[in-house]
Amino acid sequence: MKKLNNYRRNFLKNSSYFISSLLFSSIFKINTSYSKSKLKPRIIIVGFGIGGATCISYLLKFSKNFDIIVIEKNERIQTCPMSNLVIADIIPYSYISHDFDYMRLKNIKFLNSSVKTIYTSKKIIETEDSSKIDYDYLILSPGINFKNDIDGYNHKDRTIIPHCWNGTKDLFKFKKRLNDLEKKSTIIISAPDYPYRCPPAPYERASLLANFLKRKKKKFKILILDSKDSFTKKEIFLNEWRNYHKESIEWIPKSKGGKVTYFNKKENYVKTSNGSKFKADFINIIPNQKAADILTRSKLNGNKDWCDVNPMTFELKNFRNIFVVGDSIDAGDMPKSAFSANSQAKILATNLVNRIYEKDILSPVFLNTCYSFSSSKRAFSITSWYKLNKKKTRIVSLGSSTTKVDALSHQYYDETRQAYGWYENLVKTLYG
Ligand SMILES: Cc1cc2nc3c(=O)[nH]c(=O)nc-3n(C[C@H](O)[C@H](O)[C@H](O)COP(=O)(O)OP(=O)(O)OC[C@H]3O[C@@H](n4cnc5c(N)ncnc54)[C@H](O)[C@@H]3O)c2cc1C
Predict the structure, then answer these.
(1) 35 C-alpha vs ligand 1 centroid, how far in Å?
(2) Which tops the pLDDT comparison, 100 or 176?
(3) Which of 2, 242, 350, 397 is the most exposed place for a label (fewest CB within 10 A)?
(4) Are residues 216 and 312 in the same domain?
(5) At 282, which CATH number?
(6) Is-contact 330 345, C-beta < 8 A?
């Protein structure tokens, strides 16, 4: 404990800025009895999504020793995992929407606000209401932002069909537009280029939209216009589409002119890299992606799309005591997924505690399993294992295993149960 006290005293001596405890307590929605500890190292966590909430679930048992503050801009969490099933009316919205269980977060202060800027030289973050809070250690798991690199497309345009790639209530708008489709319609899904959040999800969305429209007895054609020439679990998806939707789902890869380069929202058509024009009743552009806004605004990503971190600790390159985890980082061979964010955040939190207590840093291994549904009774998965390369600078794949294309129906059904089991266990651990 002496080490911690010395640490905190040194920090306070060097820090040029403190906010008053009066202002501080007034900005917290809960725990208003908060007064700033001068003895404990302060850890601020930005984002209570999958990566941030996993860090908290690990740091919870040290919450008496550290001064932990969580800052999340949303008032509830709506997860992206399972959201395609909500769109397809297979499960209710309540399944993916979670309240914050404050009672569980003992000794942790929770601030419902958006972080505007991070002043790294002063070790201060500033929130949207201009409150400033100093930190000793800063953990960022803010997710993704979107690129506007398709001519005519703006991801912030409220009048177009929302991409539904970031856990917002836009999902209801998407569902309404889907429900409003006539008896016979053409749908375009434009799939982004790597790297992006949840690589199989555009193809899962195509499968589940088809499943939904078939149940509604509507005629449809789904065109997947792809910015890539291949995709994860491709053989299984193609097999599912052949067996259950015949000619109704067509995948057009980049090499055959699938990359969307132009969007005309007035006349509802897109143009692709080889000049082809595709008109549709429903155009769902899933934009290319990059690290969350807060990282760019605070100049933490070195002008790159994704943040470079040390994969042993998740400390941001060139920034001591700032850690980034989840979709915002370049995670080497690991895909951007909730499973990955969860696996990475456990290592981050463990090695941060090890650093604070001056213990050995663990050399990590990681795991990722991505489930995809093609209907309510059929799911399939890919599981991959990862370690660090010899220089310990990059996460590399150790191999993977995928559901067999010719698996039996009951095996596909078993995987749906495993998918629900994985999800329910995750959200119970993170959100109570
Ligand atoms: C359709 C779809 C289906 C998916 N299905 C799966 C699946 O089946 N399995 C799987 O493993 N993964 C899946 N994913 C991927 C998964 O959702 C992400 O990889 C995961 O959420 C990443 O976690 P994160 O912590 O990096 O970001 P998030 O979970 O998005 O958390 C970021 C949080 O930070 C908050 N935030 C951002 N900026 C600020 C700020 N400035 N101030 C305060 N708070 C801020 C946000 O409000 C958000 O709550 C899916 C994704 C999509 C789009």
Answers:
(1) 31
(2) 176
(3) 2
(4) no
(5) 3.50.50.60
(6) no
Q: Are 80 and 198 in contact (CB under 8 A)?
A: yes
Nearest CA to ligand 1 atom 45: 47
Pocket of ligand 1 (CB under 6 A): 46-52, 71-74, 77, 80-81, 83-84, 114-115, 141-143, 165, 167, 197-198, 201, 292, 294, 326-327, 336-339, 341, 370-371
* One domain, residues 22 and 136: yes
Give the span between the Cα atoms of 114 and 291, in whole angstroms.
Answer: 16
Name which residue sits closest to atom 49 of ligand 1, judged by CA: 49
Q: Are 167 and 77 contacting, i.e. CB atoms less than 8 angstroms apart?
A: yes
Cα 109 from Cα 70, distance rounded (Å): 6
Q: Which amino acid is at 69?
A: I
Ligand 1 atom with least separation from CA of 419? 8
Task: Establish if 223 belongs to a structural domain.
Answer: yes
Q: Which domain holds residue 175?
A: 148-289
Q: Is residue 254 part of a domain?
A: yes
Of residues 104 and 7, more confidently modeled: 104
Name the residue at shortest CA distance from atom 15 of ligand 1. Answer: 337
Q: Do 253 and 349 belong to one domain?
A: no
Q: Is 309 a domain residue?
A: yes
pLDDT in tens, 420-432: 999 999 999 999 8
Please tell me the distance from the alpha carbon of residue 45 to that of residue 322, in angstroms, as a whole number.
10
In this structure, the answer to whether residues 109 and 232 fall within a common structural domain is no
Residue 20 confidence (pLDDT): 30
User: Measured in angstroms, how far is the CA atom of residue 249 from the centroid of ligand 1?
Assistant: 28
One domain for residues 89 and 16: yes
Please say if the pLDDT value at position 46 is more than 50: yes
Cα-to-centroid distance, 220 and ligand 1 (Å): 31
| pLDDT at residue 37, as a whole number | 55
Query: Do 8 and 130 sit in the same domain of this protein?
Result: yes
Say how far apart CA 252 and CA 262 lie, in whole Å: 16
Residues 137, 162 share a domain: no
Q: Confidence band (pLDDT; 50, 70, 90) for 203?
A: very high
Q: What total of structural domains would you count in the chain?
A: 2
**pLDDT (tens digit per residue) in 291-326:** 999 999 999 999 999 999 999 999 999 999 999 999
Q: Mean pLDDT of all residues in the chain? A: 92
Q: Is the dihedral of CA 37, 41, 46, 48 positive or negative?
A: negative
**What single letter denotes the amino acid at residue 136?**
D
For residue 5, is pLDDT > 60? no
Question: Rounded to whole angstroms, what are the CA distances from 135 to 21, 52, 111?
Answer: 14, 16, 14
Choose among 334, 313, 335, 331: nearest CA to 322: 313
